[in-house]
């Protein structure tokens, strides 16, 4: 594994192999071997897991933060994701869920969290009633008056 260097702000927490650490001043850490870690900015509290995708995210997060209880979190994840696939018709959300499922199955929960984080804004838009443009609708013309 290549060395991974992380910069943390004063008071920031990091979760490494189930341990919670807080730095008292701005610091940098170098992770020299394979570890499971999660930055505080990517952690959601149980009380904030208020939507289906956030609840799924929370389950994956628990696999990283609580290694001793990872099997229980994985079981809950395996029972939950099919229900979400049945509930969502949005192709991007469904693809994001399936990406997360594949990553969890490959023992890559950190990457599964990234996949789920990318689709949470789509879920938020659906819940709030805001339409989400597809990739084609979001294209911006190169020049005014140009045709695509």
UniProtKB/TrEMBL annotation:
It comes from the Bacteria. This is Flagellum biosynthesis repressor protein FlbT. The keyword Repressor applies. Coiled coil: none annotated. NCBIfam families: PRK00794.1-1 (NF001995). InterPro entries: Flagellum_FlbT (IPR009967). It comes from Aureimonas glaciei. One of its GO terms (biological process) is negative regulation of bacterial-type flagellum assembly. Keywords: Bacterial flagellum biogenesis, Repressor, RNA-binding. GO terms for molecular function: mRNA 5'-UTR binding.
């Amino acid at each position: 594994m290549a060395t991974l260097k992380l910069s943390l702000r004063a008071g920031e927490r990091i979760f490494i192999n189930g341990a919670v650490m807080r730095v008292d001043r701005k610091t940098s850490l170098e992770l020299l071997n394979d570890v499971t870690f999660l930055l505080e900015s990517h952690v959601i509290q149980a009380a904030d897991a208020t939507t289906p995708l956030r609840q799924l995210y929370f389950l994956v997060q628990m696999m990283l933060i609580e290694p001793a209880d990872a099997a229980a979190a994985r079981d809950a994840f395996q029972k939950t994701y099919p229900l979400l696939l049945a509930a969502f018709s949005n192709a991007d959300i469904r693809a994001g869920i399936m990406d997360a499922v594949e990553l969890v199955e490959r023992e890559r929960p950190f990457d599964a969290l990234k996949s789920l984080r990318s689709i949470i804004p789509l879920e938020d838009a659906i819940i709030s009633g805001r339409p989400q443009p597809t990739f084609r609708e979001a294209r911006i013309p190169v020049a005014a008056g140009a045709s695509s």
